[in-house]
Amino acid sequence: MLLLRRNRRQYLKVKEDARMLVHARVAYFNLHYKSPVKKIFIKNHKSRWGSCSSKGNLNFNYKILYLPPVMQDYIIVHELCHLHQFNHSPKFWALVAQTVPNHRTIRAALRKLERGVAKIL
């Protein structure tokens, strides 16, 4: 219970910082992609960095704020590209590669980081 309260307090404390970061980076990358973004939400997900709804809404974990910028950008681009390709097809990955050509390396590093964090918790 104490961990949940501390996690909630941390979320509320940095939620707006995460929102500003995500909005700025979405705007930057959307100059290229021109994706039809409806709304952006910052959430306290347990196991996801981001998601995209069929309505055009993007959701991001507030903990994106704590990642290195290259990982933040990968997650943001990944979700933006889902607005064009709502799958993980070769077309989707080709879209991601337009602005994040080393996405495979970043994705592998992100997964390695996730496994390390999971072991700690």
Percentage beta strand:
5-15%
The CATH class, by name, is Alpha Beta
- The fourth-level CATH homologous superfamily is Metalloproteases ("zincins"), catalytic domain
Shape: globular
Compute the number of helices: 4
Task: Supply the helix-strand structural class.
Answer: mainly alpha
Q: If you consult CATH, what is the topology?
A: Zincin-like
Distance between the termini: 14 Å
Instruction: Describe the sheet with the most strands.
Output: 3 strands, mixed
Please report the total strand number as a whole number.
3
Number of domains: 1
CATH architecture: 2-Layer Sandwich
Helix content: 55-70%
**Secondary-structure element order, as H and E?**
HEEEHHH
User: What strand line-up does the widest sheet have?
Assistant: 1-3-2
Mean pLDDT: 91
Uncertain regions: pLDDT < 50 for 5+ in a row?
none
Computed over alpha carbons, the radius of gyration is 14 Å
Topology:
Layout: H1 2-33, E1 40-43, E2 50-52, E3 58-61, H2 69-82, H3 90-99, H4 103-120
Parallel strand pairs: 1-3
Antiparallel strand pairs: 2-3
Helix pairs in contact: 1-2, 2-3
